[in-house]
Every structure is written in structure tokens, then in C-alpha cells.
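Practice record 12: protein with 6-O-phosphono-alpha-D-glucopyranose.
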Amino acid sequence: MKLAVFGGGSSYTPELIQGVIENFELLPFSEVCLMDIDQRRLEVLVGLSRRMLARADVPVTVTATTERRRALEGATFVNSLIRVGGMEARVGDERIPLKYNVVGQETTGPGGMMKALRTIPVMLDLAGDMVEICPDAWLINYTNPSGIMAEALGRHSRVRFVGLCSGPQEWIREILALMDVDPARANVDWVGLNHLGFATRVWVDGEDATERAIAAVAGHWSVDPEWLRSLGAIPASYLRYYYHHTAVVQEAKEPGFRTRGEQVKEIEAQLLREYADPGLAEKPELLRQRGGGGYSDVAFAAMRAIIHNIGERQIIQVLNRGAVDGIPDDASVEVACLVDRMGPRPLRVGAIPLPIRGLIQAVKAYESLTVQAAVEGSRRVAMQALMAHPLVPSWEVAEPLLDDLLQANRPWIPWAD
Ligand code: G6P
């Protein structure tokens, strides 16, 4: 088995190598091929990956290439960790909307739209190459915005893919820990979109414990405790950007505020220095400061379930295919799926509870329009997407905001001129 890592020079790659080591019995890869367009980062990550595998005494060969098509030859799984435009572009996504009093975030709002517009063409090219070169391989995607990527892949390519996010697993773990409940006794109903998901019911020993769960997390969550109790569901932490939009923008306008991308740039520079140290042969402590820490757990769980036909319940980004009422079949959702050798199949959810239904449907419309804008290269459709987004208040804001964003993204979006 061969694992190809697209964006192998990512600072998250040691996460993945740790997963290769821990899962070697069930997933005995003979080769991990790191592919990246950045030769220097590639060299650093290849060095560390080899040292980690040698220290763990796991016989996997690490190869490296800057040519995508070569990386795909003979691949069983392809993991995507790419970030088109790098951290520079992320900081633009975070800073520009703030000028218009709109949240600046890498996956939520106009920033997320720009990240999607930059990334979708590259992702679809990769998918096209996979269909040609390794048609049986699975694309395990972690590149954000993960839900929008899933919709683009599902609608516009024939590639077999799994759309991942470590978020739901982390949030559910946190909810159960605050309740002091062993995860083996619990089950959580989950519905929504990527970074817009909700735990709608928490079951413990088969009994509905949702109220207990809400009481346990209130005061420890990203949204106001009183609102949490009124809402009757537990939202993903990213819902703070919607329910507390005014406060989020105000905080970001305080003097001395640094965006997450600005912070991550520093963490990454330090990580790369540590990775280059020939004495380092394990995942360094500092990597915990990155948000996507649980990535390799969810990626390897999905790969194990596919290879061993396990039929495990995992929360994944998939095309809806009738699971959630009021969402088109070919639009992506984040729901519990059964994962086996056929990949993920969404489990039936039914109706979305009314207090969260409108928001999910509105953001879904924005996401679908974003996919269309990227595929058609259309400014007009990008404007429709922006206007459909609940955090963009009006045309007066959207017009100059889109101009500003497109201007900043000219290096990566050919139709931005
Ligand atoms: C969480 C999200 C991921 C995101 C990450 C950002 O894990 O679920 O989708 O990529 O945080 O972490 P960063 O360190 O880049 O801010």
C-alpha cells in the first residue's frame, strides 16, 4: 500500500507520520510519498519523517517529489494537506473583511469563500489526475474549507473521496468530558455543515441526556450560556462567529489584535526550525499549538474502515443523498456516516430542528454558489455567494469587499482581474 501526501511539506505532516507508525499493523504502508511544490519544506519534512519511522522501527520507505502525477502512481490513498496561497493568503482572508466590519476567518464568511475559490481548481485538477493515474485510490481530504471541497469533488469529479475535519470528534470528546461520561456509553446526533455543525441530541446509556449535556458545557463553550440553553443544541465552536458576530469583530478591531494566521505564521516558522534539527525524531510538543491536532486520528480511522470494510460510524463531509431534509441531494453536509469499503454513506437524519434550520440552509446556499463561482470562474456568481452569506449585511458592503478580496487574490485566481 502506498500513501501519497499532497502538501507533504505541511507542518501537519508529522501528525500523519505518527498515524502511519501507530496504525502500521492494520495499515502496513510500504511507501509514504510526500509531494510538495516547496522543495525546501519538502526536504525538511522528508528528513523528519524518515527519522520518526526509523526511531519507531517501522519499515516504511519515505519518498519525495515535486511532481504530482509521479506521486500518484500506485497510490492506495492520497491525503491532501495543501494550502493554496500559503499563510500570506490566509492573513488576507482574515484582515480584509474586518475593514468592512465582517468577520475575518479562514473558513467562515468571505475569507472562507476566497480560500475555496483559490483551492477548488487545484483540488479538481488533483482529482482529475487521480481518476486517470490511480482510479481505485481514495482521496482523504483535510484541506479547508473541507465541506466546500467535498461538494466540489462530489459534483465535479468522479474521484473517490472522504471529506474530513477533526472538529466534530474534538467537540464531542469535550462535551462528554465535561459531562464526565465515558464515550463508550454515549452517542451523539450531529447535523449541519463543516464548521457549522450541531450536536442536536446526546444519548447516554440509551437515554436522552441532552439537557444534562447543555448544563455541563454552559459556561465552558464558545457561545453565551444563556443562548446555549435557549437554543437546545450544542453548536461547533465556529458558531461563535455567527451568534456573537458583533463581539468577534469588535475584539478583532482592538489595537494589538493578531489574527490566527499571523500567530500560526510564527508557530510554523518555529516548527520548521525544530523539524530541521537532525536530533529530532518525534512529533514536537509545539505542534499541539496548531488547531488541527486530531487530524491523523480521523484520517486513519477512515482509512482503516475502508481497507477492513468495518462499517464504522464517523462524522464526515459527504453529499447529502437524502440524509437531511431541505438540503439538495448533491450538496455536502456534515453528518454521521457508515464507513466501509464503499466509503462513507450518510445515515438518515431527517428534519433539521427549526432554530438552526435557516442558518444551515443559508450557509449551504452560499457554499453551493461558491463552488459554482470557482468552477465557472465567475465574479457574478461570487457576488451571489457573498450576498447569500448571512454575515454579509448588504450590497453596499459586498461590492467593495469583493473587489478588495479579488484584488488581493490575483496571484491565485486567474479571473480575479
Ligand atoms: C480546527 C479546525 C480545522 C482547522 C484548524 C485550524 O482543527 O477544525 O479545520 O484547519 O482548527 O488550525 P490552525 O492552527 O491553522 O489555526
